[in-house]
Amino acid sequence: MRTLIAIGVAAATGGLAGAATIDGMLDAEYGALASIQNNSTGFGDDQSGHAAYADGSELDGAAMMISGGSLFIHLGGNLQSNFNKLELFIDARDGGQNRILGINPDVGFGALQRMGDDGSGNGLTFDAGFDADLYVSLGCGDDNGNGIIYYVDYAELRTNGDGVGGYAGSGTTHVDAKGVVTVTPSAGDYGIAVGINNSNTGGVIGGDGEDCGALDDVPVASGIEIEIPLYLIDWDFEGLPFDNVRVCAFINGAGHDWVSNQVLGGLGGSANLADPRGVDFNAVDGDQFVVLGADADPCVPPATGRCCFANGECWDGVTYEHCDSNRGLWGEGLLCEDGCDLGGGNDCPTDVDGSGMTDVDDLLELIGHFGEICP
Ligand SMILES: [Ca+2]
Ligand SMILES: [Ca+2]
Ligand SMILES: [Ca+2]
Ligand SMILES: [Ca+2]
């Protein structure tokens, strides 16, 4: 019966314009960012600039507001068009789940079962005091070669499990031959609307170090935008005040099975978190959730320097992470014109580990890297 009522309300409010246009772009009405990413992305730094497709995922910042009976969330960044998932958990009422239980609605092909308790007492665990009440998830992929299509699922997270949930509709982003972007937000039975614009090439870079999703506090304006009707959370129609709304957002694998390092609030310099059942956000410094109305902590851009290479090349203004991944020698705060000291003139090239003598450790070092391709 409750589901039937919800459908009726959705139909009644579906035609009303919200305060934000669900097109993936950050509207002025959102105000300042509530959270800024502080971690490079381990799921790929999209440099394609295509408004529909992305070949990587990142969450550079979050802006949120409540307007017209809905919660609006804008996440600057990209969602890879390979059906990797954006997972949203919303804590906006008493009760809920601090650890994802094994007895939740089966939506998105076992999403909550894959992240939740498998019967052994595990399950993705939020920061203490964050008790999620609603789950919304989406993924996107190719729409017959002319754009992307995204699919949305949702579920209630009742304190003791069960609750209702289901498939919440699909939307598309198309770019025509003239480059005109058309976002058709998802429209489903539950009133949840999603729009994606994947054109971002800024924000964080690839890797697992510290990074900054909004350099100089300039937000990434394109990304994923979601409207969630509040009645999906106020499921008993009590007229809840929604004066303490918090959202945990992260990118997960296509099977809801591999948590990335793109979490808001950020992880502060971390590799991907891997199996969701083993994730415990209490083990990570800071809040892995975003508070509606909060002012984001400004992020500190990672230190840069020069990067010297054995072939004589040198790059200016790169991060340690970028330099190291290219097998260069990094110098914090230095410029190429300062010169490169690669410690050359090695008069004992067989002393691979630099211990001062050639011994079996050098052999093991060599064997340990045998077959690696050098640039
Ligand atoms: Ca918008
Ligand atoms: Ca709650
Ligand atoms: Ca980026
Ligand atoms: Ca934490």
The ordered string of helix (H) and strand (E) elements is HEEEEHEEEEEEEEEEEHEH
Radius of gyration: 23 Å
Number of helices: 4
Give average pLDDT, whole number. 91
- The overall number of domains is 3
How are the elements arranged and paired?
Layout: H1 2-13, E1 35-36, E2 58-67, E3 70-78, E4 85-91, H2 111-115, E5 134-142, E6 147-156, E7 165-175, E8 181-184, E9 193-196, E10 223-229, E11 246-252, E12 263-264, E13 290-291, E14 304-308, E15 314-319, H3 320-325, E16 329-332, H4 360-368
Antiparallel strand pairs: 1-2, 2-3, 3-10, 4-5, 4-11, 5-6, 6-7, 7-8, 9-10, 11-12, 11-13, 14-15, 14-16
Residues 127, 281-282, 284, 286-288 line the site of one calcium ion (CA).
Structure characterization notes:
By secondary structure, the protein is mainly beta. It has 3 domains: 2-291, no CATH class; 303-344, no CATH class; 350-375, no CATH class. 9% of the residues lie in helices and 26% in strands. Strands 4, 5, 6, 7, 8, 11, 12 and 13 form an 8-stranded antiparallel beta sheet that branches. It has a 5-stranded antiparallel beta sheet with strand order 1-2-3-10-9, with no helix packed on it. A 3-stranded antiparallel beta sheet has the order 15-14-16. The radius of gyration is 23 Å and the shape is globular. Bound molecules: calcium ion (CA) (4 copies). One calcium ion is lined by residues 20-21, 23, 25, 27, 225.
